[in-house]
Amino acid sequence: MADISEDQEVKVAIETAETFVNTYYVTISKPHAIKEIPDFYVKPNPESPLKPDISLNGNLISSPSDLEAVFEKQPPKTHYEVQSFDCHVLNRNYNVGVPDNVLEMNKHGRKMSIMVTVSGSVRYGDGADIQGFMDSLVLVPNWEAYGKPHKGKRRWLVQSQTFRLVL
């Protein structure tokens, strides 16, 4: 089977970005869900050299667990609202850290890396001023969920993130 068409790639990228946006920003807005933040990011393992590259307002965050700790310190009732997002396929046949049994071509559009840019607003608690934000992310396949029913595992994970408040 040949690679998928560009139209199919775009469709997969849009669906992936939309799913990510509709879950991630809800998660970081809910204090009881913040513990799920590390589940959105790549996990270093012996087969993959990748570890997440996270920058929050110019500060490097060393791990998703450290990012979780930052979000836990947000004021109560912090709310993120996405106003727009865009996405682009970066690599049509992404293979970093791929298991040997998955080295085939990108038949179903699940072996891409995808750039997602998000703009929105955040209010850090009741009565606080609304601030704009920009978030640039690179999503890559979750090899643990690749080609299997995902059973609660995310199909795409954040490999790189640069979040900035807009002043």
TrEMBL record:
SUPFAM superfamilies: NTF2-like
Residues annotated as transmembrane: none
Gene Ontology biological process terms in this record: nucleocytoplasmic transport
Gene3D superfamilies: 3.10.450.50
Domain NTF2: 16-165
InterPro entries associated with the record: NTF2, NTF2-like_dom_sf, Nuclear_transport_factor_2_euk
Protein's name according to its UniProt entry: NTF2-like protein
